[in-house]
C-alpha cells in the first residue's frame, strides 16, 4: 500500500496554533514572567490570517461566497495580505483599498499576491469620499457578487480570536495567565481573546495598547470621542480615529498609550535582546509592558502574555531602516546605527 504523504493540503492549514515564547533579556528588570504569542508564525506572517480564514469560511458556510466572487476590504496591509492569500487558495478575486500611510513593501506584497490595490489618502476623515472606507464601500456597491469584510465593524473578526487565539493561550499557559497585553486596532484580537480568557478566569487583567493620536483610550474612560485626541502618528495597525464595533470595550480593563519613538526603539531592542525580528506594534506592546511595570502593574507571580502581531520583515523601509529613523528624528543615539564605516 502506498504510504500517505505528510503534507498540509494547502498553506491555509498552517493558520493558527502559533507558539508562545518566553522573553528572557528584555524583561530582566521586570517583575513576573513574560511570554510572547508569536503571530508572525502564521503563514501570512500576522494574526490577520486567523480572521481572513474565519470570515471567508463563515461566508462560504452561509452560501454568501460562490466561485468567482470578489472579496473587498480596507486594510493597513496585514489583513489585505491574509485575505489575498486565502482568496488565491480558494479561487476568489481580492480588491483592497489601503491607506497611503502603509509601507511600500506592504503595497508591493499585496499586488504580488494577486490583489487589486487602491491607495487612498491617510489624513482625510473617515466619511470623506477619498477615505479608504468610502472607496471600499463604493467598490462593493459597484462589484457584482462581492463581499465587504469591514473588519472594524464585523463581529466575526472578534469571534475568530475568541475561537482560536483565546483557547490557544489558555492551553499554552495551563490556565496560569494573569495578564493579557495586546494592541488595539480593530480591537478584534484583544476583545475576542479576552472574552475567552475571562470566561475561563474573570480575574485575568486585560490591557489594551493605544497610540498617541488615537481616540480609543479616552473613549474607554469617558464614553466620548475627543476630536483633539486625533492627529497623525507613525505606527500602523494600532489605535483609531473612530470607534470600531469589533472592539468590546467591556473586555478591556485599562488602555495605555505609547509613542511612535519609544515603540520603534523597543522593536529594535526586541531584535537585539531576544533575537525576535518583530513588527512595529510588537515594539509598541513591549513598550507598554515596560510602562505598566513602572506603574506597578505586575508582581513576581504575574504570568503575562503579550501578543506580537506580525513580523519585522514588513518594516525594512521603516523601523528597521536607520535612514527612516533619522528622518523621523528618532535616532539621536549614535551607537544605535547598525552601519559602522570602515576606514581604509
Ligand atoms: N498590529 C498590527 C501590525 C496590525 O496590522 C493590527 C491590525 N490593525 C494590529 C496590531 C491590531 O490588531 P486588531 O485589529 O485585532 O486590534
Automatic annotation (TrEMBL):
It comes from the Bacteria. The keyword Iron does not apply. Keywords: Pyridoxal phosphate. Its cofactor is pyridoxal 5'-phosphate. It holds the Pfam family PALP. Residues 12-310 form the Tryptophan synthase beta chain-like PALP domain. The keyword Lipid metabolism does not apply. PROSITE patterns: CYS_SYNTHASE. This is Cystathionine beta-synthase. It comes from Muriicola marianensis.
Amino acid at each position: 500500500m502506498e504510504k500517505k504523504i505528510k503534507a498540509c493540503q494547502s498553506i491555509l492549514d498552517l493558520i493558527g496554533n502559533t507558539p508562545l515564547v518566553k522573553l528572557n533579556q528584555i524583561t530582566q528588570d521586570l517583575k513576573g514572567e513574560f511570554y510572547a504569542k508569536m503571530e508572525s508564525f502564521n503563514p501570512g506572517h500576522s494574526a490577520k490570517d486567523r480572521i481572513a480564514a474565519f470570515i471567508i469560511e463563515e461566508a462560504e458556510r452561509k452560501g454568501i461566497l460562490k466561485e468567482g466572487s470578489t472579496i473587498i476590504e480596507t486594510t493597513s496591509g496585514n489583513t489585505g495580505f491574509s485575505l489575498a492569500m486565502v482568496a488565491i487558495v480558494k479561487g476568489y478575486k481580492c480588491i483592497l483599498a489601503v491607506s497611503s500611510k502603509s509601507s511600500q513593501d506592504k503595497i508591493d506584497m499585496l499586488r504580488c499576491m494577486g490583489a487589486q490595490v487602491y491607495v487612498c489618502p491617510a489624513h482625510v476623515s473617515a466619511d470623506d469620499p477619498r477615505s479608504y472606507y468610502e472607496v471600499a464601500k463604493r467598490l462593493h456597491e459597484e462589484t457584482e457578487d462581492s463581499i465587504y469584510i469591514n473588519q472594524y465593524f464585523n463581529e466575526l473578526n472578534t469571534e475568530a480570536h475568541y475561537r482560536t487565539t483565546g483557547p490557544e493561550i489558555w492551553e499554552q499557559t495551563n490556565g496560569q495567565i494573569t495578564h493579557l497585553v495586546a494592541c488595539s486596532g480593530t480591537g478584534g484580537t484583544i476583545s475576542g481573546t479576552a472574552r475567552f480568557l475571562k470566561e475561563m478566569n474573570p480575574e485575568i487583567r486585560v490591557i489594551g495598547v493605544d497610540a498617541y493620536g488615537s481616540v480609543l483610550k479616552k473613549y474607554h474612560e469617558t464614553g466620548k470621542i475627543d476630536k483633539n485626541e486625533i492627529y497623525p502618528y507613525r505606527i500602523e495597525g494600532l489605535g483609531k480615529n473612530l470607534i470600531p464595533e469589533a472592539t468590546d470595550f467591556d473586555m478591556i480593563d485599562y488602555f495605555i498609550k505609547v509613542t511612535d519613538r519609544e515603540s520603534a526603539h523597543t522593536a529594535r531592542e526586541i531584535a537585539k535582546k531576544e533575537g525576535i525580528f518583530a513588527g512595529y506594534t510588537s515594539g509598541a506592546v513591549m513598550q507598554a509592558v515596560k510602562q505598566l511595570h513602572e506603574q506597578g502593574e505586575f508582581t513576581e507571580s504575574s504570568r503575562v502574555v503579550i501578543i506580537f502581531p506580525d513580523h519585522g520583515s514588513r518594516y525594512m523601509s521603516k523601523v528597521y531602516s536607520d535612514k527612516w529613523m533619522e528622518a523621523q528624528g528618532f535616532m539621536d543615539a549614535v551607537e544605535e546605527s547598525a552601519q559602522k564605516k570602515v576606514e581604509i
